[in-house]
Amino acid sequence: xxxxxxxxxxxxxxxxxxxxxxxxxxxxxxxxxxxxxxxxxxxxxxxxxxxxxxxxxxxxxxxxxxxxxxxxxxxxxxxxxxxxxxxxxxxxxxxxxxxxxxxxxxxxxxxxxxxxxxxxxxxxxxxxxxxxxxxxxxxxxxxxxxxxxxxxxxxxxxxxxxxx
Length: 164
Prior knowledge:
The radius of gyration is 16 Å and the shape is globular. Strands 1-2-3-5-4 form a five-stranded mixed β-sheet. It contains five helices and eight strands, in the order E-E-H-H-E-E-E-E-E-E-H-H-H. It is α/β, with parallel strands linked by helices.
């Protein structure tokens, strides 16, 4: 369900959902921005001794840095590597955590204790992706209803909201 790694001085928790559940949504941008999430985040920070959580699951990218009573906690969620993440975009996002500067242009990020935490665009063949998607999930299917508008034009999620 999770992996703990050390990058530079940071203890990094790598998860799919959140710190409590494989399918959890508490690292979504909406949950991270909710005032009530601070108590849960503080409990997670205290129990895990994790400095940075890297998540992918909630479809919308987010990077947040919290000063909590239990200590500083950073959360980065790349949203989706294989679908658009931002309004009017056609690229996915991956997270890069390293002690060196990214060799690629970053979308946003921060430096923490000598470690770069960055979001990087993943460009892919959008036309081929659309064709494969429609071949598997035509109009009228549940997947088409859930994802097509996002695939075709990006979600209603401006990049500025990811790195708030």
